[in-house]
Amino acid sequence: MPTDYKLIGADGHEYPGTLEELREWARDGRLGPETLIWSSEESRWLKAADRHEFQWDLPKPIEPPPFLPTPMEPPAAGFIPRLAAYIFDTVLLQMIFLLVLYPWGSELKDLLELAAKQYDITAEGTPDIVPVLKAQGLLMLIYAPISLIYWVGFNGRFGATPGKNLVGLRIVDLQGQPIGYRRAFRRYCAEVVSLLPLGMGYLMVAFSPTKQALHDILAGTKVVFRRLS
Fold first, then answer.
1. Which DSSP string do the residues of 144-198 spell out, in sequence order?
2. Nearest to residue 188, comparing CAs of 219, 209, 166?
3. Residues 77-90: pLDDT tens digits?
4. How far apart are CA 159 and CA 173, in angstroms?
5. Which of 30, 73, 168, 208 has its CA 20 to 30 A from that of 44?
6. Does the pLDDT at position 229 exceed 60?
7. Mean pLDDT throughout 171-200?
């Protein structure tokens, strides 16, 4: 004898049906895994998910997406680690500067000695300002491009100078992305503003809740600790 079935609908009423009818209802989504089904063969109520004859027709449960923890934003670097990185970079930059000047050492020495004599208050006559301006202008003409290449080149390409790498820091934009050469150049120019009020723009790092210097705010950057991978 064919097996008779009936189920409990969503309205709480019983509905009879054949096996093929119930399987079609399951494929249409009108019958779910929790629906109670009675069969004359077993004379008891079971959930549809517990009846083997419906296992291929019931809608498959949707698996929840795997939990992916949100990566933590690296903490902003404070004044002390940034100062340590700056000191290292300054010393390294001076070494590079002296290395570049080395081939013209004797000529520069004579020029600097001539300029230094103009500051001698015991010297007679009016000091000649030309050697002083010439010496300062020549040094600045050599130092400026070296400084520009050092700060913009390292920060734009790697997001950090050697000093910041040594301390474990990097420069990012406000979204945590690399700054690139354009923003690195903007930040380099903005450092002039940080220097003007007796370096107060740099000291803002110690008091700002975001630990940004004035040039960071102007350039839209921040210095954070490098995330360890």
1. HHHHHHHHHHHHHHHSS-HHHHHHTEEEEETTS-B-HHHHHHHHHHHHHHHHTTT
2. 219
3. 999 999 999 999 99
4. 10
5. 30
6. no
7. 92
Instruction: State the alpha helices, DSSP H only, in the chain.
Output: 19-28, 79-101, 105-117, 129-158, 162-167, 180-195, 200-207, 214-219
Q: Is the pTM higher than 0.85?
A: no
Neighbours of 58 (CB within 10 A): 20
Question: Token pair of 88, please?
Answer: 């290292």
The CB density around residue 19, as the number of other CB atoms within 10 Å, is: 15
pLDDT tens for each residue of 100-124: 888 766 776 666 676 666 666 555 5
pLDDT score of 224 more than 80:
yes
User: CA separation (Å) from 61 to 32, 58, 114, 222, 223?
Assistant: 10, 9, 88, 46, 46
Cα 119 to Cα 177: distance, rounded to the nearest angstrom: 50
For 91, the 3-state DSSP assignment is helix
The whole-angstrom separation of Cα 120 and Cα 114 is: 11
